[in-house]
Specification:
Number of domains of chain A: 3
Number of helices of chain A: 13
Shape of chain A: elongated
Distance between the termini of chain A: 72 Å
CATH superfamily of the largest domain in chain A: Response regulator
Largest interface: A-B, 63 and 63 residues
Strand content of chain A: 15-25%
Oligomer: homodimer
Structural class of chain A: alpha/beta
Radius of gyration of chain A: 26 Å
CATH topology of the largest domain in chain A: Rossmann fold
CATH architecture of the largest domain in chain A: 3-Layer(aba) Sandwich
DNA sequence: TCGCTCTACTAAAACGATTTCGTACTATGG
DNA sequence: CCATAGTACGAAATCGTTTTAGTAGAGCGA
């Protein structure tokens, strides 16, 4: 593989001049730059990023922490869609994305932080992880530029899907259609779940409704069988809800399939999902849900991360809330 | 950050000895190794992977080509699930995964091959891409270790989901339940599609059935509206099929939702999807489909790739077919 | 004791870039 | 014509590893 010294030999310039020419240093005249670039192309020169990193202490490489958390991992459309957007934005700005892991060295597992240091990562994007894992916290508090999704660490910028707004939008939609008895089956206890519950209860309060605590059910994200199990006692209440919000679209679609199947159902129940996965738009009836703006979340995350890397002086940790939008489907019906 | 020379100073050994001790060279006695490792731990030493790569010409980094092809990209559960498995396997063997891209250097976009060379990637996994893109072909033919998924390049190892077997299994299942008039709406023309059509027709032939060519419909993967459009004329045929195979689970689920909705339908149509996404198991009725073994595909792909990297002499390009399995759901009914 | 083989170690040269100081030369103003 | 400033370039150090080619000393058999 051609290197800088090959170009130097061929052009008669020194390594220093070639390097400067290729990097657009102002002290090199146009004509020289042209010669150098021409020869570089002829030789098929490709800069060696590791040699570069070694000297510059800049790798133009970002770590992505993406752990198969809720047994959904990369397959969760919300997260993978964030990752996709992050990938596009990073490429646009000239950075690579490498998955973080506990890669081992000499039979010894490395911590995430060690991994990041070892690869000289310029910054880290934490998309999906167990935020309470000490190894993750260590990473977040290390001083390396870190941006997190849907979780706030002190000193790190966080990009949050606006869960309060999400639940509020759904509530308003149901309320407007005449629903007053609304239940919410939420996912397992996480930060996001807390926000959703808060958003839900705030919306109810805003309308002067006080919902029985039995209207709140707990289940697990992306495990519809747990959701159905939580739903059952709620429907058996003496005064059952007329509308129920599910923790995610998968549960809602599962319920939908089950419901349309049982033609024998007594009263029609309105319901909504959460996330806005593609399928919700394709099925009939279209699912009512809140579409999280995962694309924007991924894009902004990388944007903020790279901005901080490239000009640390301007950096101030922020919490950015990204609003999604209501998808008015057909599964919340008029009362 | 602590470096080897710091350990050397502290222990009194030379850089060379420290390096060898850390890398398990046989010429260093146990006692020395112990001392060195102890001090390394105390100083929080983390090896610099780029300095290492520079010298060794081994980065322990693999490139992953994953292009948002059919506007499904990372969100396609089949692919993201392969990626997830690849990630796990790579970590297990001490390699990192970096997304390939057209990262630019000095305002100039790099080809995939240049990118790979620049990052010193030890090998490439092509998961999803436009295989006819010259930039992708260049990469595949460059001599770098490359493994592809669902496409065969000369000289590269390819891991293939067994599409012939998939269509055959589905056909057998339908046939066993009494279906003789079976239609297949396939995706856009790709290598995979060709294999599926071939598998489908072979299965029919094996039973001495000759299906009217009108039973084959063309649509696009993951665009259910095109699938529904292709289905319509087929159902209007004078002699319509009793069972139809869809190109993917998304279309099948879309159809399911639509079908259960229209209670007015005249005759029940049996159908099946393809892929085996999680949701197919959750809904009621359970979808009949062919579950591709994406986990094994991802794992094997990385395994073969690393084996080739670590012992190139043993390398012989192979085409590995990975069988999936039939999911006997409830959407193919007895006739 | 001599020569030989091991063992345990080291000095120094890479690897391929960037960057800091220079330096030689040209242009310019007084 | 001289001093000065600016322009275009280069020598060499540096980043943190690995590795080659050696060396000093111990052990050992004859």
């Amino acid at each position: 593989m051609a290197k800088i010294s090959d170009i130097a030999k061929r052009t008669g310039y020194s390594n220093a001049t070639v390097s400067k020419a290729l990097n657009g240093s102002p002290e090199i005249p146009e004509s020289t730059v042209a010669t150098v670039k021409k020869v570089a192309r002829e030789l098929g020169y490709v800069p060696s990023s590791f040699a570069r990193t070694l000297k510059m202490r800049r790798s133009f490489n970002l770590g992505v922490l993406f752990v198969d958390q809720t047994n959904a991992g990369l397959r969760h459309e919300y997260f993978s869609s964030i990752l996709e957007a992050a990938k596009v934005e990073a490429e646009k700005r000239g950075y690579d994305l490498t998955f973080m892991s506990h890669t081992n060295y000499g039979g010894l597992k490395m911590s995430y932080l060690q991994h990041a240091k070892s690869r000289g990562m310029d910054g880290i994007l934490i998309v999906s992880a167990n935020f309470l894992d000490p190894a993750v916290e260590e990473l977040a508090q290390s001083g390396l530029p870190v941006v997190t999704i849907d979780y706030v660490y002190n000193g790190c910028t966080a990009i949050m899907s606006d869960n309060e707004n999400g639940m509020n939008s759904l509530f308003e939609a149901a309320y407007a259609l005449g629903h007053r008895k609304i239940a919410f089956i939420h996912g397992e206890e996480t930060d996001v779940t807390k926000r959703r519950i808060a958003g839900f209860l705030q919306a109810a309060k805003a309308h002067g409704l006080s919902l029985p605590s039995a209207y709140l059910g707990e289940a697990y994200y992306h495990r519809p069988e747990t959701v159905m199990a939580a739903l059952e006692p709620i429907l058996r209440l003496p005064d059952p809800p007329t509308c129920v919000f599910f923790p995610d679209d998968i549960s809602a679609i599962t319920f939908l399939a089950r419901q349309t199947q049982e033609a024998k159902r007594i009263h029609p129940l309105s319901f909504a999902g959460y996330d806005g996965i593609d399928l919700t738009k394709m099925i009939h009836p279209m699912l009512s849900t809140y579409v999280q703006n995962s694309e924007e979340i991924g894009t902004i995350a990388i944007d903020k991360l790279i901005n901080r890397i490239e000009d640390p002086r301007l950096f101030v940790p922020e919490v950015v809330k990204v609003k999604g939008h209501l998808q008015s489907g057909d599964t919340i019906q008029k009362r």
